[in-house]
Amino acid sequence: MILEHRAVTFGQTTIQYTIERRPRRRTVAIAVDALEGVSLKAPDDLPVEQIDMVVYNKGAWIVQRMADIREVTATYHPRQYVSGESYLYLGRQYRLKVTHSSGIKHPRAKLSGRYLEVQLPDTLPSSEHKGAIQKVIMQWYRKRAAARIPVRVARYAEMIGVAPPPILIRDQQKRWGSCSRDGELRFNWRIIMAPMSLVDYVVVHELCHLKERNHSPAFWKWLRLMMPEYEERKGRLRIQGTNYRL
User: Where are the domains positioned within the chain?
Assistant: First the structure.
């Protein structure tokens, strides 16, 4: 898929966006996302000048959405990987507790009450603590995603009427999920930080692609049938998604 990159000036703001062309699409759809920024899906033959005008006409809405995302982002501080930091798992906050043990050879991470506890070997040099904590927390998240997401996929696959597909947990930077041409579903491990309602939205969205491969009206009909309030969940994920990172 080839994306076109464009920019439109609205007042004092330069709106940079991407265009994804769809040969059977008749209208332009705009999305403002914490991960993907401003993106448009447009008919294959629509001139870029007309697309620019669509963006300009929706400029006030786009700028406000961008401001909402920046407001959430402003509360984020770079991780120091020290005790007391807050980490999200399924929408709940857990405090990091770093401990040291003489009985282990490799760092470990686990939930302990309202804490995400990381145990470090006593023999690990202090200069390596930060990198080791970051690595083991990422591994912990990926394992939790690999354990929880397939269960949700199996549940909703049965409801939609498709066979449970192959699943991969990936370190995707721009997408929460994707569906390959051969029906393999791929999920960004960071989505496991979100509340289960948003995890389910991503799961159902990708499963609906097994019915309709593109974002055609038929696809959105399937998604609305399976999750009538999907637009509300989609909107929350776009705004809150910037919090789901290390």
Answer: 3-73, 86-243
Residue 24, judged by CB atoms within 10 A of its CB (0-12, 13-18, 19+), counts as: exposed
Write the DSSP symbol of residue 126.
G
pLDDT in tens, 97-114: 999 999 899 999 999 999
Tokens for 93, please give them: 């906050």
Classify the C-alpha dihedral 191-197-201-207 as positive or negative: positive
pTM strictly above 0.90: no
Residue 18: strand pairing partners = 5, 39
- In angstroms, the CA 12 to CA 83 distance is 42
> Do residues 21 and 44 touch, judged by C-beta distance below 8 A?
yes
Please state which CATH number belongs to domain 86-243.
3.30.2010.10
Sorted by sequence, the CB contacts under 8 Å of residue 78 that are 6+ apart come out as none
